[in-house]
């Protein structure tokens, strides 16, 4: 019976990994929901995991959050942007997720496009309105912010997948 429970939990975690990755793409806490499910399973079946995979996935999740938060701002700064553009790129990414999903009602696609465009647009506007910098400079900063946001989406969804794989393997080999 215990083997059936372990396999069921492993399969459940594998399926939840797909959901976590989709949620990470649109900026929702999919990784944390996946980790919470694993912790609940661990509480229910204490022999399911050792502490090591839990510590590893929590560290990965924290790294993913930091990367997501800072990537568009750091890329905007690298492109010559001000602190104002950095902050606005982060705000624009969040606003863009919601707006993109409304304007492009294709699940996940609208949110991805919105986040990238929002980060770039808000950073560019922030630069353009700061001391009336030329559009060329503002667009370079906006492009950097958009690239940073796109990289953050890829990295965070990859981390969600990695967390899922680690937890699934840990459950199945226990």
Which properties best describe this structure?
single chain; 174 residues; mainly alpha; 84% helix
Quick summary of this structure?
This protein is 84% helix and 0% strand. The protein is mainly α and 174 residues long. The chain has one domain (2-172).
Number of domain units: 1
Average predicted confidence as pLDDT: 87
Order of helices and strands: HHHHHH
* Tally of separate helices: 6
Overview of this structure, please?
The chain has 174 residues and is mostly helical. It has one domain (2-172). Helix content is 84%, strand content 0%. The chain contains six helices and no strands. It has helices spanning 2-25, 30-44, 51-78, 83-103, 109-129, 135-172. The radius of gyration is 19 Å and the shape is elongated. The two termini are 14 Å apart. The mean pLDDT is 87.
Topology at a glance:
Layout: H1 2-25, H2 30-44, H3 51-78, H4 83-103, H5 109-129, H6 135-172
